[in-house]
Structure formats: structure tokens, C-alpha cells
Amino acid sequence: MERVAPDLLATQIDSLAKLEVALHFEAHPDAVETLEALAERFGREAGAVRAAVEGLAASGVLRRDVLGGGHYVLYGLTNDPGLRESLRRINRVYHQDPDARVAIVKHVMGLPGGSRRRAARPVA
Q1: Which tens digits make up the pLDDT trace of 44-73?
Q2: Is residue 1 part of a domain?
Q3: Alpha carbons 15 and 2: distance in angstroms, whole number
Q4: Strand-pair partners of 33
Q5: Which residues 6+ apart lie within 8 Å of 80 measured at CB?
Q6: Which of 23, 39, 47, 63 has the least C-beta neighbours within 10 A?
Q7: Helices (H), the chain
Q8: The CATH number of the domain where 55 resides is what?
Q9: Is residue 121 part of a domain?
């Protein structure tokens, strides 16, 4: 498996929701969408997508444009060429190499077989 964008995966894409959103915008780099439209696209409640989208915007993976005096917030892919290239590599490997896809998902989820470890969480 090709080693892809380890810094991006280690620091900014740390959930499956973030991975899904980032891959969507990489595949559609000219898309500009509201949080509600993204939630509908992914079949989730807006609150479930909010943390992923806001986290990606805060880390620079997505841009956040506020329009209409704050009434509309739109999200789109970063203009940063380095981040775009990293996302392009992740997207290519994720969709073309089944073993890489499994490794990326395990990494994002902090599962054995991925390189990131998460602290144990108490079970509710």
C-alpha cells in the first residue's frame, strides 16, 4: 500500500465523518454546500455532520464562507494546493486499493492495523 498523506490523516482527518466529507469535497472540488445539504447528502442529522465540517474548516481542509450577514454558511474545498494534493492522493488510494481503504479506515478509527492509537474510553 502506498503511504498517503500521513500528516493529514494523523492531524486533521480523525473520524469517519471527516473522511467522508473530505473525500466528497476532493471528488467535487468546485462544490459549495451548506451544513444541512451535506447532512442530507450523507443521510445524517445536521448535528452529526457539524463537528466533522467545523473541524475540517478549523484545520484548513475546508473553507467556510459566511454570506448574507451571517444567515448563510457555505463550505467548500480549501484553495491550498498542498492540502488539495494530499486529499487527491488519499482519495485515489482509498478508491483504487481495497487494502489501503481498510488501512485508512482502521487508522481513522484508531483500530488495530491502523497507526494511530486512542486512549481507551469507558463503555457507557
Answers
A1: 888 889 999 999 999 999 999 999 888 899
A2: no
A3: 21
A4: 75
A5: 60
A6: 47
A7: 6-11, 16-27, 35-42, 46-58, 81-96, 98-109
A8: 1.10.10.10
A9: no
